[in-house]
Amino acid sequence: MDFDWSTPFPEGVISFLDTDLYKLTMQCAVFKYYPNVPVTYAFTNRTPEKKLSRKAFSWLCEQISKLGNISLSDDELRFLQTHCKYLTPPYLDFLKEFRLKPREQLNPIFDPIGADTGAEDELGDIRIEISGKWVDTILYEIPLLALTSEAYFKFMDTDWNYDGQEEKAYGKGMRLLEAGCVVSEFGTRRRRDYHTQALVFRGLVKASKDAQKQGLPGKLSGTSNVHLAMRFNLPPVGTVAHEWFMGIAAITNDYQNATEEALRRWVGCFGEGVLGIALTDTFGTPEFLKAFSKPIQYLPDTPNIPLLDEGTRPTTSPRTYAEVYAGVRQDSGDPANFVKLMRDFYERQGIKDKKTIVFSDSLDIDKCIEYKRISEEQGFQPTFGVGTFLTNDFTQLSTGKKSVPLNIVIKLSSAAGNPAIKISDNIGKNTGDSSKVAEVKQLLGYVEKEWAGGDETSRWGKADDATTRT
User: Fold this and answer.
1) N- to C-terminal Cα distance for the chain?
2) Are 406 and 60 in contact (CB under 8 A)?
3) Cα dihedral sign, 60-242-389-223
4) Using CA atoms, how far apart are residues 382 and 148, in angstroms rounded to an integer?
5) Using CA atoms, how far apart are residues 158 and 152, in angstroms rounded to an integer?
6) For residues 131 and 323, what is the distance between their CA atoms, to the nearest angstrom?
7) What are 449-469's pLDDT values in tens digits?
8) Among residues 50, 396, 392, which one has the least CA distance to residue 188?
9) Which of 259, 328, 329, 416 is most solvent-facing, going by the fewest CB within 10 Å?
10) Each residue of 356-393: pLDDT tens digit?
11) Residue 89 in 3-state DSSP?
């Protein structure tokens, strides 16, 4: 796709595919199994000192309303059909006619700090209430987060420009590729804006090409942003998010069996070995591994099941989820402890295949290189999904100090009328109704964990940092 790099990309979100792949894969599975389940989502600002003005909020509301005008183009459909063959034909037929309906499904709210004067420069906290059917609202998370970040850096922290972003990304890419890292770009949710992300990814692609010429050991595996993947003719990267496990647990209200049910239905939608990186920490990795070690129980319509000798479909696989899945994703807690936990698990299971660990929790270059070392020492193939460090790494022009990104999240808060929660491997990432979190922790025998690197209020630095991280 051609693009005029001399001028900034139009503001906001203008493409249906300007989202992360895992939202489409999850929507595909929700469309198959839970098309009529009502849900709600909650917006959380983990950096509450960063507020919007009323003017910034008004711009955000205007951009949110425009989401209802976006639909899947013919070119975008052909890209999905060609590069994402795991997305089922019935789902793609649904997607062709799909529209977001923000006026019906969203309620953005501005809570002023102090007296409500109505002035444009008045500061406040924002809330975004999201409700509707799961299949109809699942795609809001990524554009809403990206737009909120864009609003903040368009109106509140404006002491920056795009100069050097592509070159900076190129330098980061070369360092990672020289170190032998397999890297993908995961920065859509908290990017400064789309133009920044496009510049960054172009720098990474250029680094990848130069690294190949130089015979460097690393590799750029792609981007989670489907629109950028289409523009650069690369496959998009991603599998599943916590939302899938959270939703099924809330729907069934059976937390002791919800993880296995989520794995079973994922395989039921896509088949064995497809989109085979498992996210482990929704209710704590130890709980996940109990389900991961079980044989796959096939649903009646699970695709591509090898038939038995007599020509009938089996109901149970001879292999466990852990055997079938290519690996796991680490997204909270201490990475070194996680690597050791997974090594011990695979050894107990008698699994000798080399498995992949995808690291995706607030990475920078030094962390990638360190996690690569500890993973390879334990016999794993590490890969890295690097996000905010790439797409929102700026310094203030007037001071040279760090222009700190927002740490904002949108998580499923209820499904089928029941609260939806996430526990994770780090107390700082607990999400949802606190009484339900405590109830589930007790039910599952969850052992509380804290990690020195898990302070969610300063994951990407603080305003008085003189330099950005490497």
Assistant:
1) 32
2) no
3) negative
4) 32
5) 8
6) 37
7) 776 665 545 554 666 565 544
8) 392
9) 416
10) 999 999 999 999 999 999 999 999 999 999 999 999 99
11) helix
